[in-house]
Structures are given as C-alpha cells and as structure tokens.
Amino acid sequence: MKLEFKKIPNGLIYDVPLAPFTTLGVGGEARFFIIAKTSEEVVDALNFARTNALRIFILGGGSNVAIADNGFNGLVLSIQIPGITHTKRGDNAIITAGAGVSWDKLVANSIEHGFIGLECLSGIPGTVGGAVVSNIGAYGAQCSDTFVSAEVLDQKDGRNTIKIFKKEECNFSYHNSTLNDAFGRYIVLQATFSLSAIGTSRFSYRDNRFDLEALAVESGREPTPRDVRTAILKMRKEKGMLNGFYKSAGSFFRMLFVSAEKYLYILEKARSLDAEKEECLRPWAWEQLDGSYKIASGFLLEYTEFQKGYARGPVGISPKHTLSIINVEDARARDIAQLARDMQDAVEKIFSVRLEREVKYIGDVECVG
Fold first, then answer.
1. Residue-range domains of the chain with CATH
2. Which of 190, 276, 350, 366 is 20 to 30 A from 218, comparing alpha carbons?
3. What is the Cα–Cα distance from 286 to 335, expressed in whole angstroms?
4. Among candidates 2, 11, 63, 71, which has minimal Cα distance to 37?
5. Where are the beta strands (DSSP E) in 25-158?
C-alpha cells in the first residue's frame, strides 16, 4: 500500500496488533505504531500526527487499558524512555526516572540504594509515566506521596515545549490527577520523586487479608523497606496480581467514595443479606476526614454471583481476586466490557451504587455489533 503522508518519522510501522502490548491481551491493530525512547523521538511522532491529522494514543506498560477489537485508527505512541538517576540531599534522596521505566523496577532500584518511600507500591505493573498520570496507590500509599515534578509535553502546544508540572499543579487525588483528567493530552517524559535516605518504613494499612503493622510483631523489629516489599509481593502473588500471573488489567474497578448515609445503607443491606459474611470481610469501609466513606468494591461484589473463579466462556474473574477480570482464552474486548457491565449492574441492583471502572477503554470497546 502506498502511503502519502508527510514527515514520516524513523521507526514508524503499520497495522500493528495491540493485544501483545497489553496485560489484558485484547485489542485490534494500530494503523500506525512507533516506539519513542527519547524526548526528540516523541516530538517527531507528535509532528507526524499533527501534520497528518491523526489521533494519538499514548501507550505505557499497557496495564490499565482495554483496546477495542477494531483497534485504533491513528498513531499509537509507545513511550519507552529509559534511565534512573539519584541525588542525595541531606536526609533525602532525589530520584528521577524516564517515563518508560517499569514502575516496579524503580521501586526495586530505590530499595537497593537504601531509600524509603516507594516500598508499599511494589509489584504494580506499568510504567513510571502511567503511575504519575493515574496516581497509582496500594496498601495505604500513593505515587503522589513522594512525587516532586514531571517533565511533560502538551499535545495542544504545537511548539512542543517541555513543561515542568510540580506536585501542586497535578491536583492529585485518589487514583487521579490533572494529567489523567485530560487523558491523552499530556505526555510524561520523566518524573522526579523525593525519598527518605534514613529511618524506617512508615505504614498503617490493614484490610481483612493483610496487616502491614503485623510485620513488626512477627519480626520483633521495625520492618525494613525490603521486608515490606517482600510481604507485599507475597500478598500480590496470593491475589494473582503480579504481572504475567493472569491476562488481566489489574483491579478493573476502583474504590468507591460514598456519603455517611449511603455507607449506613450499604452496611444494613449487607447485614440483612449475610451478617456473617459482612463481619468476616471487615474492614471493608474506611471513614474519611470529610465524613465520607471509602468502600472496597470487592466487598460489594461478594453479594453477587460475580465472585472469585467466575467463568463465562472466554472471560472470567480471577480465582484469587474479585476485582480482576481475566482473559481466559482468546477473549475479545467486547467480552470483557460485557462482563464488566454485568458486574456493575448486579452491584447497583443490590446496593444502589455503581462500580466505577479503573480501566481505560480505548476506542469503541463496548461495541456489540
């Protein structure tokens, strides 16, 4: 096929299947695909897309997306900018990583150098760029806790000026940020974090399966960052949440935030349906400073048919984690989306709240035709 496009960058390839680039393993072809390992290569790709009026999808580790079966009719830009550097400033360590660095590689690197602050975020798939955009969080910690700044390109800026986004400009909240609100507009090139170079890990997370504070009791001493990482990786493995365990996008649904009134409704409803189960699964709700409650979505699903090990043809739910929709065998994106909708509907019917998707849909994922 003869292509009549302008400013074609080096490394551009055509009609690339996207499923292998995602942890969920679904999705059609990208019309155009390019890997960028430097900021200059990112700019070349942006110029190509602008000149030829192409849509752009920024692909990181492919761990939090479901791509439509008919693919993406535009340019998929895979950010693979490498590199990790450290600078010690008194009791702190400043660590900077390229957006394409594996997030868990960054965590492991920080622990190897004796730094404290990222250990609770061990085992999360994806890249540094994606971690910043979505403000990943787990076990009582968030990316924003240690974030300092990021170098970012704005797709709406035709001059391709690199901007510095500081923490206060990102408006971080639970699994969200300014960069995520305008999903796809901003391209993270690298990010900087401030970690502690002395002291011990600080944590207070506890749920019905995991209590980080118990580590101190078990070991008879303050856990080191390496101890915390080992414990979290063990738990994530038990939940089937380590990359490669299942074809999944991780937790498909996020925690819910509800009013105190809605929390009481959910509590009473759960007790009326199965009081023993409600007690067994505590804690499943956490009161916030503003009086609202954070609710574990997996708890709500426990009162539906959609529980661990549920299977429906090519799709199912992980035998180890209620929130993890898995590609059992040759699933299509529409199969994944249908199961997700049915899970949302079931929870809404019982508790009058609707689960919110964590996973981003790229293209017409929910197409049923």
1. 13-79 (3.30.43.10), 84-238 (3.30.465.10), 256-362 (3.90.78.10)
2. 276
3. 33
4. 11
5. 29-36, 56-59, 65-67, 72-79, 84-89, 92-98, 137-138, 141-142, 147-154
Per-position DSSP letters for 135-179, written without gaps between them: T-EETTEEGGGTEEEEEEEETT-TT--EEEEEHHHH--BTTB-HH
Contact at 8 Å (CB) between 104 and 289? no
Neighbours of 203 (CB within 10 A): 19
Centre a 10 Å sphere on the Cβ of residue 10 and count the other Cβ atoms it contains.
7
Q: Which residue has the tokens 């990943």?
A: 136
* Residue for token pair 């549920």: 310
Instruction: Print pLDDT tens along the chain (369 aa).
Output: 445 566 778 899 999 999 999 999 999 999 999 999 999 999 999 999 999 999 999 999 999 999 999 999 999 999 999 999 999 988 999 999 999 999 999 999 999 999 999 999 999 999 999 999 999 998 889 999 999 999 999 998 888 999 999 999 999 998 899 999 888 889 999 999 999 998 777 766 666 566 667 777 777 778 889 988 998 999 888 887 776 678 999 899 999 999 999 999 999 999 999 999 999 999 999 999 999 999 999 999 999 999 999 999 999 999 999 999 999 999 999 999 999 999 999 999 999 999 999 999 999 998 754
Q: What residue type is assigned to position 310 of the chain?
A: Y
Give the CA count within 13 Å in the CB-facing half-sphere of 120: 25
